[in-house]
Amino acid sequence: MHVIARSTGAAVEIQIRTSLQHLWAELSEKLADVFDPSIKYGGGEEEIRSMLADTSDLIGLSELLESEVSRRQQRGQLLNWAQEKLLQLRTKLGESLKELIAQVERIRKRNDLPD
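^ thats the sequence. predicted structure below, dont judge the formating
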């Protein structure tokens, strides 16, 4: 979320993010610095765009899970639901991390970067 505020007559942009959203933004900035500045604007190699999209999806799922756990905990419905969702999250996270590792390795090899 972006908020525009005024401070001593000047417009100031304030970005409001969760800690995971901030880490994702840092990752995208670093990838843009190393590989291609257009990554920050949706450009760059498909592998990097895909990696960022997958990571964003995981962050969204994690934040949704956190919100839903809190809501269900208040209603006494937490245990079965949380166990099922955490298993789904663990499975998706494992698959995504394996793919991210493979994508980074392909990029490293293509760009002839050291191990």
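Residues 78-110 form the longest helix (33 residues).
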